[in-house]
Structures are given as C-alpha cells and as structure tokens.
Amino acid sequence: MKNKLPPIATLVFGACLTMSAAWAAPASHVTMVTPDEIKWADLPLIPGAKVAVLEGQMDKKGPITARIKLPADSKVAAHWHPGVERVTVLSGTFNYGMGDKLDPEKTSPLGPGSLIVMPPKMHHFGWTKEETVIQINVAGPWGITYVNPADDPRKKK
Description:
157 residues
C-alpha cells in the first residue's frame, strides 16, 4: 500500500518549503552589535528610561529591534501600539499587566528570558522595582498611544 498525502497536506508541505527557502535567503547586509557598542539615548515616552535602537528606525517602515532600559521604580502607564509588539526581558524583572490603568496587583513578574507577544492596540502597562532592560521587536513605524492622554509624559512639559 502506497503512502499518499492528502491534497491539503501536500499544499501545506509545499508552502512550508517555500517559506523556509525565503527565510534561508541571504540577507542584504548583516547587523552585529556588541554590548560595548550600544548607544543609549533618553526616551521621553517613559520618564527616566533610555533607548538604544539596534536595527531600523523607529519612525520608518521596516523591522525594528530596540532595547529599553527602565530605571528602578519605573511605571509605564497603560498604553497601546499600532502593530504587533514582541518584548523580551533581558535583565531585571518587568512586571507586566493588561488593561486600561496601571494596577500593580494585576501584573505578572517576568524575569530574563521571558517573552510577551501582543496584538496591535492591546492595552498594557508595566513597572519595575530594579533596573530592567527589555528588547522590543516590531515592524515600523513604531508608536505609543497612552490610554489616558493625561499619562503621556510628552504632554507634561
């Protein structure tokens, strides 16, 4: 008896091969950044925070990889982003929650290696007890909209 894949399985298998070939295609250039090369700048969107953009430009279309250094006792008010956001905790503990208002009681502590993947426009917030570094991977342009406009530090100047 011959093993024959059903037509849908053949289609799925073919699509996977096509996608893996595209992913394996050589990059037009390589970006390598070592920790001593990272240049931090103030991030006015979060008081006291620093940002380092490792790939892309925050206001341009395309892939973006950036690190955000949050000082101890940071509070990031409820906000959302226009696209999918992937957050990886690199150091410290990021206390993450979902909702329309920062509520420390409704957060989960996430340590190094933890990953959060959020759909566009999902309301979320966070806070730290210690200095914490997170990495975001998004498709640009990247933006942040605070759920309560009064929480937006850009409007408090």
